[in-house]
Amino acid sequence: MIDFKFMEALVAVITEGGFEKASKVLHITQSAISQRIKQLEEMTGQILIVRSAPPVPTEAGKRIVKYFMQVRQLEHELFDNLSQSSDRQFLNFPIGINADTLATWFLDVVIPFLENERVTIDIRVDDQEQTHRMLKDGEVFGCISSKKVTVQGCRSQLIGYMNYRMVAAPGFKKRWFDKEISLESVKRAPLLVFNRKDELQSTLLQKVFNAPLPDDTPIHYLPSSEKFMEFIAAGMAYGMVPDIQSKKLLEKGVLIDILPLANVKVPLYWHCWNIKSSLMETFSKALVSGASKVLEP
Questions:
Q1: H or E segment at 266?
Q2: Distance CA 215, CA 218 (A)
Q3: Which among 71, 102, 135, 156 has most CB atoms closer than 10 A?
Q4: What is the DSSP letter of 251?
Q5: Which residues, at least 6 apart from 66, have a Cβ–Cβ distance to it below 8 Å?
Q6: What's the CATH number of domain 162-265, 1.10.510.10, 3.40.50.300, 3.10.20.740, 3.40.190.10?
Q7: Nearest-angstrom CA–CA distance, 16 and 259
Q8: pLDDT tens column, 106-122
Q9: 161 - beta bridge partners?
């Protein structure tokens, strides 16, 4: 039988991104961390971690991480049910989400859950490909993604849609799109994009002009949902912003929808482990219920 302390050391190194940080979290020396992982590798007969910076789990290591995380969640629920004491331990609850979800509605929805459960939330922000990988590798209990495809051993549920529009400040529109928006004017005006994985603007232009974003379009990159809209409102660029974030500024005239007849609706799915867990069920119900009040059906 594998000693949980060995698996705990492996998970800590991967989660914290290094042996030094893992040793501080577990309150043991780096040497002890290394020894426990070495013993775990000897017991399993496989290399479990690539000693790089940061350390990366091998395929075998990923399976152990996932197993440990699932067992720890079930163990927490067992002791939580057995104990009536106020000294019950908190469970770390890692969730993978994208930046727009975090910036607009996620915290308001999960705060009531956190007020009633002894968990600490661990939010991992990344694009949908990476949050899916985190779920598959067992690094998170669940993730919110626009991908419908369900990870093996997990379940998914549509929780709503986020609607995105192409917006700009009035002064910016007058300067760059005074007459009409065309592919030629798009090539001249500076566009704001979240990061190089962001395809929303290309999706909208393909929908309107049946053509992709021109290669020579001047582009600003700003990977912050909050500052993203501020940058556009300051008249520095135009870009794609969700309705839930831009609604008030559109109503006040601070922003203008520069392609009012076109938008991009992005479906959001909640993916989580398919295990019998009352905590997971409670969180999932709270998330789905809360999302239905803020997202489009």
A1: strand 264-273
A2: 9
A3: 135
A4: H
A5: 137, 138
A6: 3.40.190.10
A7: 44
A8: 999 999 999 998 899 99
A9: 267, 296
